[in-house]
Amino acid sequence: MPRPIAATIHLEALRHNLARLRRAAPDARVWGVVKANAYGHGIERVFEGLRGADGFALLDLAEAGRVRALGWRGPILLLEGVFEPRDLELCSRLGLWHTVHCAEQIDMLAMHKTQSPHRVFLKMNSGMNRLGFAPAHFRSAWTRLEALPQVDEITLMTHFSDADGPKGVAAQLQVFRDVTRDLPGERSLANSAAALRFGGDAEVRGDWIRPGIAAYGSSPDFPDHDIAHWELQPAMTLAARIIATQELQPGDTVGYGSSFTADAPLRIGVVACGYADGYPRHCSTGTPVLVNGRRTRLVGRVSMDMLTVDLSGLPDAGTGSEVTLWGRAAGGAVLAIDEVARAAGTVGYELMCALALRVPVSVE
Ligand SMILES: *Cc1c(COP(=O)(O)O)cnc(C)c1O
Predict the structure, then answer these.
(1) Number of H-type helices and E-type strands within the chain
(2) pTM check: above 0.90
(3) Closest ligand 1 atom to the C-alpha of 210?
(4) pLDDT 10s digit of each residue in the chain, 364 long?
């Protein structure tokens, strides 16, 4: 028998989340953001669940090739654009749309020989200070692009730094609005947080929203709002089984570093999941976990291949019991990946992206 740990990708949850995002941003088209191998879920595995999207957005040319290989003939957008001139040949061949965020990418386009002009997303740096033309240079970049025979339609794009927090999107939206006011073309501004929180505002949702994390069933602004608030469902479950139990006496400790000491008799379960499976080692005693669908807590330090859970109040739990590290338990109980991420001092994004290769994954 293989080690009892497995991840499951839930297609119905992906479909549900996509529909939820459409409701949040009515009339906008939706990019299914599948960068980083669909946030760790696997592009091929999520495809059936997300094929209702209007296009797929990602960063990597090889990943774009994988989406085309699945038979997808609709739009594919490279969110960072091309990295060198010959990438443009693949864009022409695969019909990829690409972001243009810097002058070098315009230079490359100007040199590119293509039969059919490319659709580009011209990106403004409206305050994130990562990719994009500064507001003062945006219009001249647009004018230059517009004059190129290699360029078809130009969509105007920016990215919010604080759509999930108290600062919000107002200041960046103002910058974007002022610079683009009289420019023609579609607009794309909103990630998951902006779409869910401000998608009711036509200016924020624009013509194309770009949700990633919410489609996978993680709340972009946890702990302010959880997935129940946003009506999202986990698209990934990580589950394992108890492979041993121990009866602790007061004063007994658990695991490396003896970080947990029992102050009363305590039964614990040893679970076949550790940090080499992608479960964060930073999770400490108290991190929530489901055993047979019932909520309990991690105790002690996470090892490479195992972790330990409190079985008090769970007399029926023992060797072989199902443990849900995140996602949905057999009986339907849900443990949001966001809660586990928070206990590790990180975000759901990092946990799903870090699911280890050794964990077998099935799709249902
Ligand atoms: C990753 C990414 C997104 C998706 O962000 P989420 O927070 O996962 O919704 C949107 N736009 C760009 C440019 C991105 O790189």
Answers:
(1) 13, 19
(2) yes
(3) 10
(4) 899 999 999 999 999 999 999 999 999 999 999 999 999 999 999 999 999 999 999 999 999 999 999 999 999 999 999 999 999 999 999 999 999 999 999 999 999 999 899 999 999 999 999 999 999 999 999 999 999 999 999 999 999 999 999 999 999 999 999 999 999 999 999 999 999 999 999 999 999 999 999 999 999 999 999 999 999 999 999 999 999 999 999 999 999 999 999 999 999 999 999 999 999 999 999 999 999 999 999 999 999 999 999 999 999 999 999 999 999 999 999 999 999 999 999 999 999 999 999 999 999 9
Both structure tokens of 333: 């109980």
130 annotated ligand binder? yes
Instruction: Decide: helix, strand or coil at residue 4.
Output: coil
> Does residue 5 sit in helix, strand or coil?
strand
The SS3 of residue 339 is helix
128 token code pair? 């994130």
Phi and psi torsions of 113, nearest 5°: -100, 120
Long-range contacts from 18-23, C-beta under 8 angstroms, 24+ separation? 18/49, 18/50, 18/52, 18/53, 18/215, 19/52, 20/214, 20/230, 20/231, 20/232, 21/192, 21/195, 21/196, 21/199, 21/209, 21/211, 21/214, 21/215
212 Cβ closer than 6 Å to some ligand 1 atom: yes
Q: What is the dihedral of CA 244, 306, 227, 40, to 10 degrees?
A: -130
Active site residue ranges: 35, 256
Domains and CATH numbers, the chain: 11-218 (3.20.20.10), 236-363 (2.40.37.10)
Please report, for residues 120, 220, 224, the alpha-carbon distance to residue 267 in angstroms, rounded to integers and kept in the order given: 59, 36, 34
User: Cα–Cα distances in Å, from 198 out to 93, 228, 229?
Assistant: 36, 18, 15
User: Would the CB of 163 count as within 6 Å of ligand 1?
Assistant: no
33 lines ligand 1 (CB under 6 A): yes
Q: Which residue type occupies 92? A: S
* Cross-strand partners of 268: 246, 310
What whole-number distance in Å separates Cα of residue 126 and Cα of residue 160? Answer: 8
**Quick check: helix, strand or coil at residue 108?**
helix
Per the structure block, which two tokens stand in for 80? 């960072």
